[in-house]
Structures are given as C-alpha cells and as structure tokens.
From TrEMBL:
The protein, known as: 26S proteasome non-ATPase regulatory subunit 2
Residues in 26S proteasome non-ATPase regulatory subunit RPN1 C-terminal domain copies: 866-915
Biased composition (Basic and acidic residues): 633-644
Similarity comment text for this entry: Belongs to the proteasome subunit S2 family.
Lineage of producing organism: Eukaryota, Metazoa, Ecdysozoa, Arthropoda, Hexapoda
Species for this entry: Phyllotreta striolata
InterPro entries in the record: 26S_Psome_Rpn1, ARM-like, ARM-type_fold, Proteasome/cyclosome_rpt, RPN1_C, RPN1_N
SUBUNIT field: Component of the 19S proteasome regulatory particle complex. The 26S proteasome consists of a 20S core particle (CP) and two 19S regulatory subunits (RP). The regulatory particle is made of a lid composed of 9 subunits, a base containing 6 ATPases and few additional components including PSMD2. Interacts with RPGRIP1L. Interacts with CRY1 in a KDM8-dependent manner.
Gene3D superfamilies in the cross-refs: Leucine-rich Repeat Variant
Length: 920
C-alpha cells in the first residue's frame, strides 16, 4: 500500500515564503526612502502604498505590511524631517500616519496623536482608500484634539472632517471578513452612525444636513432620534429640530409628525397638516393624532376637513372594533364564570338558594368588574344587557351598586350613539348609588370620543355641583374620563370652584384629579395655583395626611405631564409644606414631568430618594404601666395580645404620617420615567429586586406595581415569575398589589401562564377576601376584551407615549399605594379610570376611502435596527396573516405583497394603504 502524505500544520510563529518575500521587499523600499538617491524615493513610496492597499487580511489581525513596517517607524519619521521636496514629504506623511494607527510608535505615538498630525501634513486626498479602521482612528484623535486646538489648527482639521463625513455618509457598512460568518460575528455599526457621533462630539451637528441625501437621511434621522434620549435638554432640542427639518425637507410628513409630538411642537403639527396635500397621507396623520388623543387646529377650508375631523374625533373607533370582532369571531359574550374557570379550582361548592349560586357582596362586585372588562367594547353581556339585567345590580350594595352600574360604560365603550340609551334609564333610578354609577358610565362611554352634540357635558354638568356627594362622585369621574386631555376651558370652569368650596376630602381629591385629566400637560391656567392654595390651607392639619390628598397631588402633577424643567416653580412652592408631604408632591411632579422620557439623570435622582434612610419624627413617649416597671418587648407583646383577646374590639386607628410614602412614589416614578426605553427597563428590574428585599413595607408595596408598569401588557417570563413570588407575601398589601400587577402585565393578552397562575392564587387565597377580590379583578384584566385590547401606553412602534393612557394607569397605581383605604375600601370605582388606558391591540388596514381592506402581512418580534450596517431584518420569527390581526407589545408587521404601499412609518394600529398601479 502506498504511503499517504500527511500535511504538517505550520506553527504560528513560522512565516511562509510569501511573507519573507514581502518583508524583504518592504525592507528594500524603506532603504530607498531613507537613502540618499532622491530619484528613487517617489517610486518607492508609490510601491509601498500599493502594497499596503492591496494587502488582504482577516478582521482580527493587523495587515502584514503595517506589521512588517512597524520597526521602521522612527526611521521613516527621521527621513520625513530631512526631506525638502514638499510633494514627496506629504506622500511619506500619509504612510507614517497610517503606521501610527497600529502598534508602530507605541504609546508615545498615541499620546502625541501622530495619526492625525501626520495626516494633516500629508496629501489629505482619498483618505477613504486606507480603510475604515484608519478613518475611525482619525475620528478618535480629532475628538481628543478638538478641545485643545488653537484656531489655526482647527481650520486645518475642518477640511479633513469634511472628507471623513463624505466617506461616512457614502458607506453604509463596515469592512467584511473573508467569510460571511466573520461579518455576522464581528459586525460593527454603520459608518453613518460613526459620522453622526463625530459631529456630536465636536459640537458641529449643524453641519450634518449638507451631507444628507435621499439615500442616507432615514438612517441618520433614526439614529439621531434614538440619541436624543441620552443627552441633556439643550442638545435634545437641537437634535429634534434637525430631525424634524430633514423629515419635512424630504416629504416624510408622518415621521415629522411623530417627532413633533415627542417634542410637543404644536405649531409644527398644525403646519404639517396645512402643508400636506396628499389625501391618504392626511388621513394617516389624522389617525396617528387620534390615537394620541391630540386635537388639531385645522383650516375649515381644507378640502378634506370633514373626513379628517371625523377621524380626529375617534367616532370610527366603535365601528372598526366591531369589524375586528366579527373577523376574529369573538362576538359571543363571556360570563365571569367562563373567565374564572372555577370548575378547575378544588374548592368546596358554594351555597345555592332557589337554584342560584350565592356569593358575597365583594365577589359580586368583582364579577361586575370582570364582566365589564372582558366584554369591553362589545355592547353585550350575560349579566346587564339581558332581560332583567338590573337584578344583577341589586345583588350588590351601596358603592358596589355604583361600580356595577358603571360597568355598562365599559360594555358600550366608544359607542356614543348606541351606548347612551341603555344607560339613560338608570339616570331615573331612586337609588343614588345606581344613578351615580350611570353618570360614571356615561363618562366611560364618551372616553376618547368627541361628539358634536357633547352629551357628556350636557348630562353630567348639572350634577358636578350637586349637594349629594354620591352623585358628585359619578359626575366628576365621568367628566374626567369623557374630556381627558381635551384642555376644554368650559369643563375646567365647571370643576375648578369645587377645589376651593368643598369640605369633603374625597370630593376634593376627585375634583383635583379630574382637573388634572382634563388639563393634562397644560399648566398655564388657573388650575395649579388653585390647587396649590387649597393644599397650603390644609398644611399642619390632619387633612393633609388623608389618602385623598395624594390624589389631589397627582391631579396637580398631571397638569405638568411632559413639562420637564417647567416644574421648578411648583417644586419651590412645595418647600413650605411639612415632610413627608413635601417629598410626596415633589416626587409626583418629577414623575409626571419626565414620564416616558427614559431620562437617565432623573432615574438616578429618583433612585437616590429610594435609597435614602427615612428620617422619622420623634414620637411621644407612651405612658408607663401602673407598676412603673420596664417590661421587655416580649412582655409588652403578650400584654397587647391578652388585652386584644379580652376586649375583641379594635381601637380606632390614629392617622399618622407614613414617612416612607415618598420613597414608594419614587419607586413608582422610576418605572414611569423608564417606560418605553428597553435598556432602562431591563436595568430597573434588577434594581427593584434589591429595593423589595431591603425597603420599607410601604416601598415593598410599590415595587410590584412599578414592575408591572414597566411591562404593561407584556407578560415576560421573568416579570411574571417575580410577581407570582411576591403574591404569596405575608404582607397583605404586598400580595394584593402583586396580584394586580399580574393583571396589568397580562392585560388583554389571554396569556395562558398568567391565567393559570391566577387560578392557583384563587385557591391559595380562597379564605382571604381582599386577595381573592384582586385575583378575580386580575383575571378580568388578563382576558380584557377577549384578548383584543391592551393597556400599553406606547404606540406607533413604541415611539409615542399616550399621556391619557399613562394617566389612567397612574391613578390606579397611586391609589394602590394605600389599597385598604381606597381600592379595597369604598373607592373601588377608581378602577374605572383604566378605561382611559384601553385601546385595541390591532393592525387594521384601510383603503383610500377608509374602508377595511384585507392585506397579507408578516408578523414577528420587533428587531432594533438603529445604527445597524447594511439592510438588516426588522422582524424575526415571522408568521403570515391577513389583516385585521392582533399585535403583541413586542411585535411588528410588514406588508407581504407589493399590491399596496404604506404611508405610515410603521405598520400598526390603523393604517391607510395606497394601492400600487400594477403594470398591464
């Protein structure tokens, strides 16, 4: 048998014949350059440049010519100093500059910035030919040099910066490796991104527009827009203005509108509507504004005025939602039993009388909430809209009747024309609680919908100043929901007198809250000063310790929603208040002013408040026992237990300050500020674990709510597991809030894992009425709208924060900081403030006549492509569907055919499509 030749692998330190030949060639060229024969130098330099340019290498190693020339670095520098021919001297400076990029010259070359220094001495022509890494090194040294330059050197660098920016904006990708897998493994950001970073570092961002073209402006604007979250306010305003101007210049009206909304530029929004003439684009702009609850000052002479105003009024919402329900075949009403699936719960059978199951009043109340949320927007159910539906209302008592009647508003959500009639009959009830519930239901029906007849104000206005406090509750909250974010001055004038006139703390808290909802984000009116005056009047009194004052503070803060630095004046005003109320209000102001901004500095400030040691005021010493002896703590506890077991009567609880309440609000505020910013949310989830472990009891109650706020309608496995663990906590308030957090995290998703967890909790807390009530409520939220609705305040590919939706969530979350006093007490009707948060989680496609049109789309997990090189995929894990479809929080859609084109920057919510004329 013939012997088989075996290839022996070459050692790493051994060099091939080609390498040795290259070394000798380069050594010869160096000798010619440093020699005395001036005629040989130009050709030697050109040959050396050619060898460097044509060298091939992997992405993880230094090019061999640079490696072999490194020992001659100092020799070439000396030769450069002695040269007299300017052209040859510049050519050699180019090579020295390139060598300084690598290891040649050592740390001394890096310190002296030789790469930049010799580049400025060189030809400065076609610098891009030397490769991406050379450009990157130049950019790094330009940034280092910029702040220490004299005016002369700065003028020299400017032409170089121009050449670098031209190179950056014409190259969309980094150098790839020898194999396709090399690029995937060692992928780098786009050159455009690096160019933007350079101009931001040297404060020349205003020069960027001259390098922008139709090919690169989408990448540049997307990157700058993402950077605006991580800079100070002055820089942010500058970046947003540049992005808006570029979108307008290139006719990207939808993207310009979104950017204008983020920076609250009302003048530009109105200008966009007056400038754009394309009917389809105008319709799409109107749908974006309608989703954001933003009203436009549109010129009545506009050719499409009626259609646009119809879209802005949200009058289409009910009919389009009915279309979605028919397509998904979910019109059949569900009962609370269908949601609870009690047949899966191993509990004793309930008492039956005359063939009917008898529940406690609290469980009937829970079923009213569940029935409303599960059938929200469908207009029918099996409890209230059937014959004899009022019997269900009478199975509740007092405030429970109010909430049961108000659930009619959820059933007819957004349907102003069809929903008023079934509610109207309850306005003539002799029971004040039922009548108040009907008033609240009217407000819920009108939530986010603008009607020319203005039925909400006409029906509710007369009861706002009523002498009957029960009727006032329904009317005030109804108006808050019906006119949330409307900034209507006539509504403000109706509510404002209550702040100064009412003696009831409950009405005061609700009136301030309603004013905050109506005047959301608008503080240049009489509302802040009026609320301030009333709060200052209650200073140093027990009224200030009431839970309702926390609602009043939230109402005040909602006026400053998104105001950022404009809260300096109210912050200073609150310094006259005593602690901890001062910290409560100032933290709430900070939370609302920076809600959804992702501002890292504000999050750090809030975490500082959470981490501070609570300073508790000295309490009065208790009287010593009759015998005057100092007993141990154990003895005192035993005496207390014996006394309690003997009398069996609880002493009235003395209202006292909760000095950790400011930290609880700060914990909640961390989540509110970080919402929508993925990196920030991921970090705070880690921090919350430590806060829960070491925080005060009040702060621990807030942690589960904050975790839920950071993952609304987004049941991530880690968050669900943590909240499940917290829901078994020994502290009843912590368990209650964690259960509600599970409902918020799974809201409208029909998530099987969350639903199974809640069924287990129903068994675990079977004998705890408060926890069981909250489990039932959470089950209703998870199955809200039979899986078609969401609480997520982020929309339009998570670029915009819906302030009305976030305000609704915040109201319930703040109320749950004292659950036994408010939500689990008689103010459970505050849960209906979530009606402002409810939105369909759909993708509905319309033609140019605003009629639903089925289109094939690809749906998958959204992928962040900001700053990515090449043309990366925007979605992963693709599934193909036909519209209308339901989209989860982290999902994105793309058109699967080329029959239509979109005019919206994203494919979610309601999208108007333009049909593409197909060739014959």
């Amino acid at each position: 048998m013939a012997a088989t030749a075996v290839a022996v692998p070459r050692k790493l330190d051994e060099e091939s014949e080609e390498d040795k030949e290259l070394q000798s060639e380069l050594k010869l060229l160096v000798d010619k350059i440093t020699g005395k024969d001036q005629l040989l130098i130009p050709s030697a330099l050109e040959m050396m440049k050619y060898l460097i340019r044509t060298s091939t290498t992997s992405m993880t190693s230094v090019p061999k010519p640079l490696k072999y020339l490194a020992p001659f670095y100092d020799e070439l520098k000396k030769a450069h100093e002695k040269m007299s021919n300017d052209a040859v001297k510049k050519s050699l400076a180019d090579i020295i500059s390139l060598l300084a990029m690598g290891t040649a010259g050592g740390e001394e070359a890096k310190k002296n910035r030789d790469c930049l220094r010799y580049c400025l001495m060189g030809t400065m022509k076609n610098i891009g030919d030397w490769g991406h890494e050379y450009i990157r090194q130049l950019e790094k040294e330009i940034v280092q040099q910029w702040n220490f330059n004299c005016e002369k050197t700065t003028r020299q660098i400017l032409p170089l910066i121009k050449d670098i920016m031209i190179f950056n904006t014409t190259h969309h990708a980094e150098i790839q490796g020898n194999k396709p897998t090399d690029y995937i493994k060692f992928s780098k950001p786009s050159r455009i991104v690096i160019g933007c970073d350079l101009l931001m570092e040297i404060d020349l961002l205003n020069e960027l527009p001259q390098y922008m073209s139709k090919n690169n402006y989408p990448r540049i604007c997307m990157y700058l827009h993402s950077c605006s979250k991580y800079v100070d306010d002055i820089e942010r305003i500058k970046i947003m203005k540049l992005v808006k101007d570029q979108y307008i210049q290139f006719g990207e009206y939808a993207k310009a509108l979104i950017t204008a909304m983020q920076s609250d530029d009302g003048d530009l929004i109105n200008k966009i509507f007056s400038t754009c003439t394309d009917k389809i684009v105008l319709y799409q702009l109107a749908f974006i504004c309608a989703r954001q609850n933003y009203m436009i000052d549109l010129d009545p002479n506009n050719a499409h005025y009626d259609a646009i105003m119809g879209i802005l009024s949200n009058s289409h919402l009910s009919s389009y939602f009915a279309t979605l329900a028919r397509e998904l075949d979910v019109l059949e009403p569900k009962t609370p039993e269908d949601v609870y699936k009690t047949w899966l719960e191993p509990v004793p059978p309930r008492l039956t009388i005359l063939g009917e199951n008898m529940n406690s009043a609290r469980q009937n109340l829970a079923s009213s909430f569940v029935n409303g949320f599960v059938n929200a927007g469908f207009g029918s159910d099996k409890l209230l809209t059937v014959d004899g539906g009022n019997k269900w209302i009478y199975r509740n008592k007092d405030h429970g009747m109010l909430s049961a009647t108000a659930s009619l508003g959820l059933l007819h959500l957004w349907d102003v024309d069809g929903g008023l009639t079934p509610i109207d009959k309850y306005l003539y009830s002799t029971d004040d609680f039922i009548k108040s519930g009907a008033l609240l239901a009217l407000g819920i029906v009108n939530c986010r919908v603008r009607n020319e007849c203005d039925p909400a104000l006409a029906l509710l206005g007369d009861y706002v100043a009523s002498d009957n406090e029960t009727l006032q509750i329904g009317a005030i909250l109804g108006i808050a929901l019906a006119y949330a974010g409307s900034h209507r001055q006539d509504v403000v004038d109706l509510l404002l007198p209550l702040v100064g006139a009412t003696k009831s703390m409950e009405i005061l808290g609700l009136a301030c809250l309603a004013l905050g909802f109506v005047s959301l984000g608008k503080f240049d009116n009489d509302i802040p000063s009026t609320i301030f005056n009333r709060i200052i009047e209650t200073n140093n009194t027990d009224a200030l310790k009431s839970a309702f004052m926390r609602l009043a503070g939230l109402g005040l803060s909602l006026c400053y929603f998104g105001a950022r630095d404009a809260i300096e004046v109210p912050n200073e005003t609150m310094n006259v208040m005593e602690e901890p109320f001062k910290t409560n209000i100032q933290t709430t102001l900070l939370m609302c002013a920076y809600a959804g901004t992702g501002d890292v500095l504000i999050i750090q400030e809030l975490l500082r408040i959470v981490g501070e040691k609570v300073e508790v005021a000295k309490k009065e010493k208790t009287k010593e026992s009759n015998d005057g002896s100092n007993s141990s703590k154990g003895d005192k506890k035993d005496k207390k237990e014996r006394r309690g077991s003997f009398t069996r009567i609880k002493a009235p609880r003395r209202v006292d300050w909760d000095y950790a309440s400011g930290q609880a609000l700060a914990t909640l505020a961390v989540a509110v500020v970080a919402v929508g910013e993925d990196i920030g949310v991921e970090m705070i989830h880690r921090i919350f674990g430590q806060v829960f472990r070491y925080g005060e009891p009040t702060v621990r109650r807030a942690v589960s709510l904050a975790m839920a706020l950071a993952s609304v309608s987004n049941p991530q496995l880690g968050v669900v597991d943590v909240l499940t663990k917290y829901s078994h906590d020994a502290d009843e308030d912590v368990a209650v809030n964690s259960i509600f957090g599970l409902g918020v995290v799974g809201a409208g998703t029909n998530n099987a894992r969350v639903a199974a967890t809640l069924r287990q909790l129903a068994v675990f807390h079977n004998k705890n009425p408060s926890e069981l009530f909250m489990v039932r409520l959470a089950q209703g939220l998870v199955h809200m709208g039979k899986g078609t609705l969401t609480f997520d305040p982020m929309h339009t590919d998570r670029m915009l924060v819906d302030s009305v939706a976030l305000a609704g969530l915040l109201t319930v979350m703040v109320a749950l900081l004292e659950p036994q006093t408010l939500i689990l007490g008689q103010m459970h009707y505050l849960v209906y403030m979530l009606a402002a948060t409810i939105q369909p989680r759909w993708l509905l496609t319309l033609d140019e006549d605003l009629n639903p049109v089925p289109v094939t789309v690809r749906v998958g997990q959204a992928v962040d492509i900001v700053g990515k090189a090449g043309t990366p995929k925007t979605i992963a894990g693709i599934h193909t569907h036909t519209t209308p479809v339901l989209l989860a929080t982290a999902e994105r859609a793309e058109l699967a055919t080329d029959q239509y084109e979109i005019v919206s920057p994203t494919l979610d919510g309601i999208c108007v499509l333009r049909k593409i004329d197909q060739p014959a």
